[in-house]
């Protein structure tokens, strides 16, 4: 599987919580090994939410995202809000998903 770092509307590589965001791409320059070992997403969310009462909403926000030691892999389309926001696709770049506010260090 080839991966590409996701980019925003100006061609800049995007991150979430200081980890690069990747997606599958036929001619991507990165391999799956770039991601490193997988991290339990539920544990990661619990450690990175500001208030535990918001873990469910953050879990929904990250439905298609898998977290690894060296980045995020977005694979799916059940909730595209965060990916579209970060990539500035259409008018989604103007409206941050509410659940993004609940993460610590959300850059």
Account of the protein in words:
- The structure is a single chain.
- The protein contains 3 helices and 6 strands, in the order E-E-E-E-H-H-E-E-H.
- With 107 residues, the protein is α+β, with helices and mostly antiparallel strands.
- It has one domain (2-102).
- Strand 2 (15-16) and strand 3 form a beta hairpin.
- The radius of gyration is 13 Å and the shape is globular.
- The N and C termini lie far apart (27 Å).
- The mean pLDDT is 94.
Beta-strand segment tally: 6
Strand content: 15-25%
Order of helices and strands: EEEEHHEEH
Write down the domain tally: 1
Oligomer: single chain
Number of separate helices:
3
Query: Class by helix and strand content?
Result: alpha+beta
Shape: globular
Could you estimate the helical fraction of the residues in percent? 10-25%
What is the typical, i.e. mean, pLDDT? 94
Largest sheet: 6 strands, mixed
Work out the radius of gyration: 13 Å
Terminal Cα span: 27 Å
The low-confidence parts are none
